[in-house]
Design a protein that fits this description.
Number of strands: 5
Shape: globular
Number of helices: 6
Largest sheet: 5 strands, mixed
Helix content: 25-40%
Length: 169
């Protein structure tokens, strides 16, 4: 019978819905691009120190998505903890509605992405137990206690809230 008339949509590793028009995931591959295309992304916040692979860069160009590579702000390697400056820069982008729909990404969507989302949950006044449950669900057996400590100690007073924030804040 040939090819099927429907398309398979496969989300990237550690894909999750964070809030309306805000998603999280690891680096997508070619199998994930049809799914990612359906999200209609305007912006990607890339948190890993290295550049996304060339296939992702081509996808971003083809879809006219703005890519903000924040992982290079601090240099280092993928196992280095995320910094307060990187979180605050990510929030400048995440809290600006003109960047939505948006995805927050790192290589696997576990630690750096999980820390940014955890700090966002703290800004949303979630309790720490719920924040850590969500972080652990995506981190799996690779939980980093330093990331949980970072989230717990993150000072939300440092975040500049825009005049017209997203409705979920």
């Amino acid at each position: 019978m040939g090819r099927t008339a429907y398309q398979h949509y496969i989300p990237p590793v550690n894909f999750g819905y964070v809030e309306n028009d805000l998603y999280r995931c690891g680096q997508p591959n070619e199998l994930n691009f049809p799914f990612m295309e359906k999200l209609g992304l305007r912006c990607i916040v890339w948190l890993a120190p290295e550049e996304p692979n060339q296939n992702v860069m081509n996808f971003v160009d083809d879809q006219d998505i703005e890519l903000h590579h924040l992982g290079v702000l601090e240099g280092g390697n993928a196992s280095d903890p995320i910094t307060e400056d990187m979180i605050l820069e990510a929030f400048n982008l995440i809290l600006d509605k003109k960047n939505h729909p948006m995805a927050i990404m790192c290589n696997i969507g576990r630690h750096r992405t999980g820390t940014v989302v955890g700090c966002l949950r703290k800004l949303q006044r979630w309790n720490l137990a719920s924040i850590f449950e969500e972080y652990r669900r995506f981190a799996g057996p690779k939980v980093r206690i330093l990331n949980e400590q970072f989230i717990e100690l993150f000072d939300t007073d440092l975040v500049r809230i825009p005049v017209d924030p997203p409705e979920w804040l």
